[in-house]
Each structure stands twice: as C-alpha cells, then as structure tokens.
Structure prediction request, 206 residues.
Amino acid sequence: MVKNWWMPLYGVFFGFYVPDEVRELKGDVVMHIADTPSTVYGALRRLVKELSPRWIVHTGDLADDVKLELSPAKLPRYRIKLEFLRRALVGDDSTGLVIVTGNHDDEKAVREIFPESIVFRERGRIELCGEGFNLSHDMAHLGEPPLKYNLFGHEPSQTDLSGQGRFYLNGLQGVHIISPSLEKVYCLPYPGYVDDGRLGRRKRGL
Prediction:
C-alpha cells in the first residue's frame, strides 16, 4: 500500500487513516504494531474498534516514551503506561494479543499486566489465522528459517521488505494490517506526533 505524505498529518487530527479496502477486511486479520509511545494509545484504541482484528501482535517497547534500558528507576511510570495500553488493546474477547518484549520492556511487568496474552522474550514463532509468524523485537534476531510473515520493530532505518513469497515488516514504520487468507499486507502510517512521543528515536536510534 502506498504511503501518501498527508497520512501522518491526517493522523494528528483524526487518528489513523483507514482506506475503504482495509475497512472491508474487518475481522479475520492480524494487526502488527511496535515501539508505541503512550501518545498513540488513544488512536490505537479507535483503530482496534474500527477493524476488530482477530489478533494484535506487538513486537516490543510497549511504552516507548519510557526508556527502561536507560532509566530502570522509571519502572513505576512504565507500569502505569502499560495499564493504559491494556485498556487500548484489550477488551474484545474475540481479539488475541501476542507480545514480544523489547529492550525497553520489563518482562515481569508485561506478564502481570497482560495475564491473558501470549508473551515471548525477545523473539518467538506462532500460528495466527492459519499462517506461521516469525516474531522478534529487531530484525537481526528473527528466527531461522524465515516464515512467510516476519515481524519486528526497533530499527528506524529498516523499511518493509517483500519478495520470494515472504514479508519482513517493521512495526516501527507503521501499523500493518495483514490478511493471511488474501495474502495482503497494508501499512497505515502512524500519526505525525508519534516520533516525538518516541523521544526522537529516529534521530538518536534509541
């Protein structure tokens, strides 16, 4: 899907821009996100309500405006933000949540606050909607051999790649809506304010 320049600007005022062809996929899809600052939680909640994905996959750094690896003392603040993220992503019994912890996550806190979710430490593999998914917080640690859908985050410079029947999707770049049954992937750009919420990670590579 082409990312038009105005989509992130649209997001500042209205949230994620969702084309009609993506709305029509509502239901049996996988939604992939990564490196989410708390500033985008409200927009994510509206997107979840609009698309009702069967599964949500988060590939790490759940509260990306709290850099736990750099400031471990901020754990109480991080836990509060996870509570807000849980309200944004969890609520519909038909939606499953898969989490891969990142370098700025606390695995114990994630497991406590998302007790009904599937949690992997740094990487994992799982079947969703009848298709295998290879998951990691960063691209370098994706498991071998690769699967059809290889999801990661963390790396601002790494764009989405596809070829030879495989997809490599960076959830830091945008929200992916994946339809395994139709073999289609759409990328919805984050609202323009999200990079600021990540504390300038694109500039500093945090």
Notes: The helical segments are 7-14, 20-23, 41-51, 75-89, 107-113, 194-197, 201-204. The chain is about 25% helix and 25% strand.
